Input
Amino acid sequence: MQMRVLIACLILIIPGCFSEESIDFNGEDLNEMETFKFTLSDQEQSSYSLEDADGKVVVLAFIYTRCDDVCLLISQNLKVVKSQLTSEELEQVVFVSVTIDWRHDSPEVLQNWSADMGLDWPHLTDWNSDEIRNTYSAYDVIPYDEEDYQDIHLQPVYILDSNLNGRVMWNEYDWPIDLFMEDLRTVLDLEA
Output
């Protein structure tokens, strides 16, 4: 009888020891998607490679400076998210924005805009290069085109893990900051 109880307990306990715990993100789960490791120019006219952030969790946003609606919301939400991180979390997270309007958003324009907005992370651009076109394509972003661009647009915000794999994507323009924070902290916890 004791042997049957022991076997029954083992049957119930052992599978839980070997199965991976499922992660429920609030945003879209990207299942550790491989990402494109771009190198673009920042607002200081320096080269910035996504691989520079290897070992840190990356919050990657796509915006443009002439946008007077969605991009402002996204940028302000990210500013609030960053302000709510602890100093320990800030050491583990990098924020990066890539313009979708490379024709207008020169490094100087990005520098002035980010200073005016109080945003202290890299804002990247490039001049009609294969690199920026490949970045848009890899991250499913539609670049701004004055003739064909929609007034209402959705730009993704990605959370990449410390191996630069895509973990979560938020595609709404005014996402709940608390739920985004949960996802960011979940990815940070996975790194621990």
In short: Residues 2-18 form the longest helix (17 residues). The CA atoms of residues 95 and 121 lie 6 Å apart.
